[in-house]
Fold:
Amino acid sequence: MFIFELYFNFFKMKLLLKLWTFWCLLITVSIFFILLIPNLFLIFCLGDFGRNIFVQYNYYVGNILLFLFGMRKITSGSFPIKYSKPCVYVVNHKSYLDVIIIASLIPYKIKYLGKAEVFKWPLFGYLAKHSGQIAVKREDKASRQQGFDSMKRALNDGYSIILFPEGGWRNNGDVKSKNPYNLQESKLLQEFRNGAFRLALETKVPVIPIALMNAQERFSDVTMLIKPGNVFVHIFEPIDSRSFHDAFDLNHKCHNLILNKLKEFNL
Structure:
């Protein structure tokens, strides 16, 4: 009888999570289509001014989505972010939810470096491409260099850059996604690619590391279920890239900061 109750409660919980995930998907799609015409007007009719508005008001869209998903941000460290000048944000990456969380944290002019596959998604990819976000084919050296040059121009134009230097994630049971960087399964933090830190050194802008503690628990790409609850984030103080002569030293500094914060959270 006890085992039967456990199975019943498990399937009941799974059904509730499926219903909640459907709700979150419905809300996301609804907001996307409600804002589609205004977004197209901003991007195609108002030039750079409109694209800047599009990028910056996603701060509010991100916060609204998290609220409607039943998620509450618990933010520690240097928050709200006061540094408004161009910089490079480096963030650990474990979930599709990461982009929404980051959007909800940063109210300034930002551009994302994203994998080229995302830019092929219907409508979403079209908006990402024409709003000035930066695509990269991770396995293509020429594409990586082109993306690097685009990021340098964006920083010079007053934008900050959002980078996930792990290059992706590899959760337990996640065998479908591409793995060009030989990511290790379920590793707490993958090694960082060095491009973000070389970019910061060459442009002499600060780096702001951000640790997302449990985004994969709220939305896992393995189960594709969304769970309401707290989302824990830690934002570090800006690190002056001019204090470093080697990009790898800056890389290791940021990696250790985020890794230690993740270990502390998972104790």
In short: The longest strand covers residues 71-77. Confidence is low (pLDDT under 50) at residues 1-8. The chain has one domain: 2-171+178-266. The first helix runs from residue 2 to 34.
